[in-house]
Design a protein that fits this description.
This protein is mainly β and 333 residues long. It has two helices and 24 strands.
């Protein structure tokens, strides 16, 4: 069994999101736990409620990287991404800052490398420092893929208007030196549109991200944009809608889509308790229904990793979590 923080009522979370709103927090991992972060974010006694006949199972999480080692204060990694270089070296990029959580001061990305996914991981110099030259107010939630000899990093750059948050692109030939794309922003949407990730589909690319049903708020959603070239994105549409209504935070964060056996699996961080990820199944990458819940496990900002030798892993991280963790992921179908 997987355990996490005690469950609270919906009213409890609603009150805490109002606290977040009053504080002005609108980060890529806003949760109801900030008002008392250490008690609410730490793993404790809650048992994840797994649906009958789950499509996947997640093993025990083990810490692979602690960003606080060598530092005089504690640091966190939040939304993050893994990418394996052509030379076999693994790279980790993620939101970072000193504890406690301070979303609007998350203005560069942590970078670490390892010879193997399980480590040992070595801290490297931070990358992608926010700059007003490119209208960047934050640097959140990176996702990196390799295509046509380049590494493509999508990330949230924020904005002055929460209804017009920007998703930017930077590219690199080596994962060390990054150049922002002159066509930025790739996508503009609200409310606090963020947490991008992309997959290929037929002759196009799909970019998923968090938003709300209208730019100024509404149902928390996952949206998708399409592109023929990873640069020009259009046809934005909603692919998943949660019944919960609001602006900041919400139960559709950190979307991650896996294509497997002609099915598509959408992983989202629910924030029903800081560490909870839900998985939904669909026959199409353009729509998921909340009724098709096929798994739940305890993780915040989960990323799915499929290694060259065919193994599957899932990660977790977050405010007050002490680093980045990995667990084995086993498909049941």
């Amino acid at each position: 069994m997987i355990r996490t923080a005690p469950r609270h009522s919906p009213e409890f979370f609603s009150v805490r999101r109002q606290v977040l709103k009053s504080l002005g927090f609108a980060g890529g991992a806003i949760v109801a736990g900030l008002a008392a972060p250490w008690g609410l974010m730490a793993n404790s006694t809650q048992i994840a409620t797994t649906p009958p006949n789950p499509a996947l199972r997640v093993g025990e999480f083990n810490k692979i990287y602690d960003p606080s080692i060598g530092e005089q204060s504690r640091w966190y990694i939040n939304d993050h991404t893994f990418i394996r270089a052509e030379n076999g070296q693994w790279h980790l990029f993620g939101i970072t800052h000193r504890e406690p959580a301070n979303p609007y001061r998350e203005k560069f990305l942590a970078h670490a490398t390892a010879p193997d996914l399980m480590g040992p991981w070595t801290r490297q110099s931070s990358v992608m420092h926010a700059t007003t030259k490119y209208n960047e107010r934050v640097v959140w939630a990176p996702y990196v893929l390799r295509h046509d000899g380049l590494y493509w990093m999508y990330y949230c750059a924020g904005g002055r208007d929460h209804a017009k948050y920007r998703i930017h692109l930077a590219t690199s030939s080596d994962l060390w030196n990054w150049e922002r794309h002159p066509a930025n922003p790739m996508v503009v949407d609200g409310y606090d549109s963020r947490d991008p990730m992309a997959i290929p589909f037929n002759d196009q690319w799909l970019l998923y991200y968090v938003a709300t049903s209208t730019p100024t708020g509404g149902n928390h959603t996952v949206k998708v944009a399409t592109s023929p070239d990873l640069i020009h994105w259009s046809h934005q549409q909603e692919v998943f809608r949660d019944p919960e209504v609001g602006t900041y935070g919400g139960p559709t964060e950190s979307p991650f889509v896996v294509s497997r056996n002609e099915k598509y699996y959408l992983f989202v961080c629910t924030n029903h308790g800081y560490n909870e990820t839900a998985v939904y199944e669909s026959a199409t990458p353009f729509h998921w229904d909340a009724a098709n819940l096929v798994a739940k496990f305890l993780a915040h900002a989960a990323e799915v990793i499929h290694t060259p030798d065919g193994k599957w892993f899932v990660s977790r991280a977050g405010w007050g979590q002490g680093g980045v963790y990995l667990a084995n992921l086993t498909w049941e179908n």
